[in-house]
Specification:
Helices cover about 45% and strands about 20% of the residues. By secondary structure, the chain is α/β, with parallel strands linked by helices.
Length: about 500
Amino acid sequence: MHRAIKKGLIVGLGFLLQILITLYVYLYLGEHIQIINILYGVLGIILVLGLIKNSKHYSYTLPWIIILLSFPLVGTLMYFIIGRNKTSSKLLKSIVESEKKRKKYLIQDDRIRKEFQENSRLRYLSDFSGYPVTKSNRTSYYPSGEEAFQSMLAELEKAEKFIFLEYFIVGFGTMWNSVLQILEKKVKQGLDVRIMYDDFGCIAKLRDSYAKELEEKGIQCVVFNQLNPNSGVIMNHRDHRKILVIDGRIAFSGGMNIADEYINVNSPYGHWKDNGIKVEGEAVWNYTVMFLTMWNAIKKTDKDFTIFKHHFKEKIKENGYIAPYGDTPLDSEITGEDIYLNIINQAHHYVYIFTPYLIIDTDIINALNLAAKRGVDVRIIIPGIPDKKMVYILSESYIESLVNAGVKVYKYTPGFLHAKVFISDDHIATVGTINLDYRSLYLHFECGLYLEDAQCIKDIKKDVEETIKKSHQVTKKEATPGFLKNICQAILRIFAPLM
């Protein structure tokens, strides 16, 4: 907590200093106030035109347009501190270059491509998201963090060559101590052990010196996007991925980070409902490349990624299609949202969704409502106990429209639901890190696992059905806010993309 307060103060003071300098110039030149207002107004209009021309999604840019036109001085200042060009930083430029190099390592098998040529969902993943679709895999779904964690420990013990970890949050406690004990042992055995965690995600979990402490143990460490007063927009772009790769043979992902609440040790919000998924087979290469791409954008240690590719002696016999995919705010594709929309729009019988946050744009709202109106059984499960009250009020603001259109919304009564899952028609699913909110869809680095006709889909459906049994369905009466709450929600909606 001391580290969080310290870094928060430093970053806050940095922002305050930038604001004060601008205001000082503004006041000092008060005799020219009309000219200054005109200049800021013109600059604001130029910025708005640029936003309109280059916007990927107007639901995200609308708040900036409102702020810039309504408050030219403050709005322009905020935009240059928070919302300026995404690739203005050295780190983001490095990630863009690393992403370009990634493409040469992820090549779609032509034989598999011929099989799914008529499948628009798989074609999108392969041709536009840039992540190959594979078949020779074995998948295991874990309906709780506790079950996933036990499997992770067992597989870590079997590691023989390397271990790669990339997590938004790593925190001191039972879970991390168990992992660290194995990592220290594997380092002594000569394995290549690396961990990458997000500085903001761990701000209240780890001390500043912890990366150095890990390096002293022989564990290579990268802290993603360290906070500083001059970070600007890059502070909005966090590494929200959860990836564990072992020997290029097995990978884990899902909703859980490495901290005690994810396995219900000292969970602050009732029962913490999370999940994990394990992949063994050709698809692990996608996760390996994802990790190495981000790692080498920050710490250039690998000239050739292929030395980390595992060559399976025998093909794993599972006929389903598997495609681990990454999502980045720095390219032209909104991969996470596009995959979600494809699932909703092409559903025939049902779509079931787990999401901890429900802060959705007009495209997703319209897709969900239209699916329900055409007879698709659409169910969304959100937390019963929130982790962020203001965000929860905002999430509730979307429920009325959905329920009125026929979407069934449930609140997980025992506590906080953190899993991120879409499943449809018994043969399509995606499990990963991507929340239904603006941060996950537009600002963060994320990952997911897309599955078609994989054996574990039946386990995912069972988990959703069991969770619904423990949840309360929101009625139309409950979904209708009172007068004051309605006003509060409307105001929050305007600034939702900035939260």
